[in-house]
């Protein structure tokens, strides 16, 4: 982990009408760091990631992106969104496009990059995940695990500085979970800055530099994984871990 701060979140708040989804979130994410966000359903994990990707309008608080400054003030969302990659539970691949066209779309349209150059990068990444022979397949011809790995490659082809993962294995059959977790582990080993929301506790312990535990729209504690799983500071985290004790 390097010391450079890639993302800095200050006093972030988010409401949906009269529901407070996030309340005063403060967090620094360092370059090369892997943060895993844990917490009970409805505590605001997904909303937080969506705010970091500009999918939610932010009324209060700021997100500072590296040395570019505050997003929405010093730098426009359009200029940084490509550098903040996100992968969703539901893949979000375009069903009428084959794998390589799904991968090419963002870099060519949003980043105006050369087709050959992106195709080469896409092919190399597909090879790394063992799916180079599925370049011409359509999403419906792929398993859930394969679709999710393609969705990761698609996000990586935008050359992001940080990757956000929102419960990306939650909809997969158990035998496909591992292949997707392994791709994230490899990315972490290669130094990608990542923020991961997951319910896979063993994986969280394995991959995280720090665990961020949330409850009711707030960060309750930030700990290193060993500390968090063996000796959580907050009562709420203890209760939460009890639910998962059979899985850890
Ligand atoms: P988590 O990802 O931890 O399960 P979410 O971020 O999805 O939590 O939700 C946080 C809170 O915000 C919940 O109370 C949820 O019901 C509410 N919420 C999330 N999205 C919306 C939305 N689009 N409209 C209204 N309320 C929402």
UniProtKB/TrEMBL annotation:
Coiled coil: none annotated. It holds the Pfam family ABC_tran. PROSITE patterns: ABC_TRANSPORTER_1 (PS00211), ABC_TRANSPORTER_2 (PS50893). Keywords: ATP-binding, Nucleotide-binding, Transport. InterPro entries: AAA+_ATPase (IPR003593), ABC_ATPase_HisP-typ (IPR030679), ABC_transporter-like_ATP-bd (IPR003439), ABC_transporter-like_CS (IPR017871), MetN_ABC_transporter-like (IPR050086), P-loop_NTPase (IPR027417). It comes from the Bacteria. One of its GO terms (molecular function) is ABC-type amino acid transporter activity. Belongs to the ABC transporter superfamily. This is Amino acid ABC transporter ATP-binding protein, PAAT family. It comes from Clostridium gasigenes.
